[in-house]
Amino acid sequence: MSDVEVSPFPEGLWSQPAVDPSAIAELEGVEPVKSIRTPARLDYTYTAGISQSRFLRGMAEGKLLGERCRKCGKVYVPSRGACPVDGIPTEEIVELPSVGTVTSFCVVNVEFTGRGIDIPYASALVVPDGADLAVFGLIQEIPHDQVRMGMRVEAKWKDEADWETSFENIEYWRPNGEPDADYESYKEHI
Amino acid sequence: MSESDVLSAPLVVEYPFTRTVGPVQSAFFTGLREGVLVGVRMVDGGVMCPPVEYDPLTSEPLTELVPVGAAGEVTTWAWVDEPRADNPLSTPFAWALVRLDGADTAMLHAVDAGSADAMSTGMRVQVRWADEREGAITDIACFEPEGGDR
Amino acid sequence: MRDVAIVGTAQSVHARRIDDRNEVEMLMPVLQELKDGLGVTQADLDFTCSGSTDYLAGQGFSFVGTLDGVGPYPPISESHVEADGAWALYEAWVKIQTGAADTALVYSYGKSSPGDLPRVLSRQLDPYYYGPLWPDSISMAALQARALLDSGKATERDLAEIAVRSRASAKDNPFATISGDFDVDEILAEDHVVSPLRKHDCPPVSDGAVAIVLAADDRARELTDTPAWIRGLDHRIDVHAIGLRDLTDSPSTRLAAGAAGVNDGAIDVAELHAPFTAQEVILREAIGLGDDIDVNPSGGALAANTMMAAGLVRIVEVANRISAGTAGRGVAHATAGHCLQQNLVCVLGAEP
Prior knowledge:
The structure holds three protein chains of three kinds. Chain A is mainly beta. Chain A has helices at 49-60, 183-186; strands at residues 35-47, 64-68, 75-76, 92-96, 99-108, 121-128, 135-139, 152-157, 170-175.
């Protein structure tokens, strides 16, 4: 793209009148300050809450746990504590297979700090079998340009010895060889 | 699972902000870097220091920069026995609003007075400059009692 | 103008620390109690508005997660203010005035225990001149208190008496964080936390949630026999920089109180959002409340101060007393920012 001349704002439209520094000798001829650094750091002790703690403890045991709403029957994974349809806590725990369908994906071409993954790579939304919500995950073991909606995938877990109360126990998702899921079977979850 | 099984973890929220400044604030921060205090004349004729771009009562743009003294009067204060992270001083100090000579408004900063007994509303304080100045409010390391040799 | 009333209220216990659940789990029981008590479901509520800030618990977009507890799917008409629920009430009230809604759910919550609240609140300050010094909220309030003491408008004993009265009143408030009988001389003998403030001059840090339902005209009468009608509602803001203000006065509160019509009739009860003792003195004067007015029978913010909710709680405490028939007309006040920077005044009555 060639350089484009950007016209200045029309006179009177959001213009700041020039300041008059004449009374301050020390401002004459010196480089004016244009910005200030204002870093901010705040430390917290974050509570996962009841529902998320159940999910994370499931992760530590190699299980992908969803929670079912007793009113509408939908299964959420990970559960954040409430069914957004009924506004009540989800209480029934449902163990889900770590196998699912890609409902959407994107190809990332930008290096984010600290990721350590070769770019480009594909990230996807995967609905585990039996769930009504998708989880977000990295797709590996397939060229990024072959990732598609409907692709059947399985989770690749870390070695059991490395399991913690963390979603990161699932390293990524990879094709599991099954034929692609029919669009009708996952269109509600897009 | 009992409620005592609820998990928690440290969480740090951190932002490396850089903020641009307009012409009035630029003059103030440039002044600090150069070792002088700069105010701006308000619509009612008074001087505001530290200065902002618009009049607080009429909201008209302010443009007349005015030199202001590096010493002034404490208009209110509070004693901190236990400084917190990122405060101007790590030893006990006073917060104070300081109305610098020639200004009609006050600036918030810290006063290194040594003890609460040395603080009083109306006392005179002077700027203690930071060893290295970059054009920020912290170019004023703190204030100290006027004429003192701390 | 449409007649709008508070037809139902609910609040959680405002605890020092609710660390066994996350924000949505903390809020849901309050919303459920409110809706069940009124016999309404989310479908009966035309508009929802919430007040909260992510900086309390440190989780970005926390208010989106908490919205799950409302049952927002299928999609509802909702809004959010990064402010106390009193301002969410203001937005919902305006929505109803435009005719775009007849009923509204307003809620707010705060979970400050995960962080260092006084330090977090320094982020509300001017980022050029104040923020980089990291003055915490207690230090800022202390500067205001010193100015008040210097002016002669109050003594340290007067402030201690406010603290003692508030916490004694809170004994009748099942939701309070602190309540009990304290001795003025004993607490005056304690060390300062940031002089001239002592511990009793400061609010507790509280976690909790509050929710109300607003309804207009006949809809309000259908939902309850004892609506608390909003007779006046206004909010104003003072200049931000405390170096430009007279900290012993609150012009924005005076303006808001005038516009809300506080003194158009007798006041039976007042709930003032004064987290620091000195602020109650300033607010009383700015609103024009005589010494005979019962201020903060709930204990006020000195007994429970859930950030982002304490202002709405003041409105709830007045509304509840009107609905219960123990007050005919009352004023509630909410504040935001350091040193009473922004103020909202709400007048409520048993008649529309």
